[in-house]
Specification:
Blueprint (H helix, E strand, L loop, with lengths): L1 H18 L1 H13 L9 E5 L2 E5 L5 E5 L3 E8 L3 E6 L6 E3 L4 E2 L1 E5 L6 H33 L10 E7 L5 H9 L7 E4 L4 E4 L2 E8 L4 E11 L1
Antiparallel strand pairs: 1-2, 2-3, 3-6, 4-5, 5-8, 6-7, 9-10, 9-13, 10-12, 11-12, 12-13
């Protein structure tokens, strides 16, 4: 039991480290920028799938990450740039001017190749984390709207409907003692609409075909 209790915090720490990897790289980049060219470049920050560079003296520039291609050395030991895809001018500054790269340069020697790699690692790690989130969301959605539990011919009941019955249908149901939750039989495969909602049709116990545009169903 002690071994299990000790293992749990270790696994938790490992998971947190993976989840925050791009944040850690960003912190490292910003720590470097504090002294790079006397702090002129301020700091970088990624949000809304865009990398921003907020300059120390005010102003900013940004590059949408879906238009990023790579960060690479422009001048050995002196200049690095984050470049746009297909040589487009996707970098925009506060005044609205467009450029083909986001530059980081100085008059003093520095390890340009290392800094370019750090910027690439930051952006790629962020994009990778976004893909993992999307993948998990897709898996969750596939599970929610799966039709495996509702094959054609299975008895089901409607447990919630987004559209209210017409007055005629409501009166007929009331006269014959039926309720909206009456059992039915799937006569066509249900069409998934997402988030557990379906459209389709059922055959009610009185033989009528009941079509619905949006409803949640359950096994009878």
């Amino acid at each position: 039991m002690k071994k299990i209790l000790l293992l749990f915090p270790i696994l938790l720490l490992q998971f947190s480290a993976r989840a925050e990897q791009w944040d850690a790289i960003q912190n490292r980049v910003n720590e470097f920028l504090k002294t790079f060219d006397h702090g002129f470049y301020g700091e970088v920050d990624i949000h809304h799938d865009t990398l921003y560079n907020y300059y120390k003296g005010g102003g900013y520039s940004f590059i949408p990450l879906n238009q990023y291609t790579e960060a690479r050395v422009v001048i050995d030991k002196r200049k690095v740039g984050i470049f746009c895809l297909n040589n487009t001018q996707c970098v925009i500054n506060a005044s609205g001017s467009h450029f083909d790269m986001m530059p980081f340069s100085t008059q003093s020697d520095f390890d340009a190749a290392k800094f370019a790699k750090e910027l690439n690692d930051l952006i790629k790690s962020y994009l990778s984390s976004k893909e993992q989130i999307k993948h998990k969301s897709r898996k969750k959605e596939e599970k929610v709207i799966s039709l495996a539990d509702y094959p054609a011919g299975m008895k089901i009941k409607i447990i919630q409907e987004d559209k209210v019955f017409s007055l005629y249908e409501a009166l007929v149901d009331e006269e014959e003692g039926r309720k909206k939750e009456d059992v039915g039989i799937v006569v066509e495969d249900l069409k998934p609409l997402g988030d557990g909602w379906y459209s389709g049709s059922i055959k009610q116990s009185d033989g009528r075909i009941r079509k619905f545009e949006k409803a949640k169903v359950a096994k009878w």
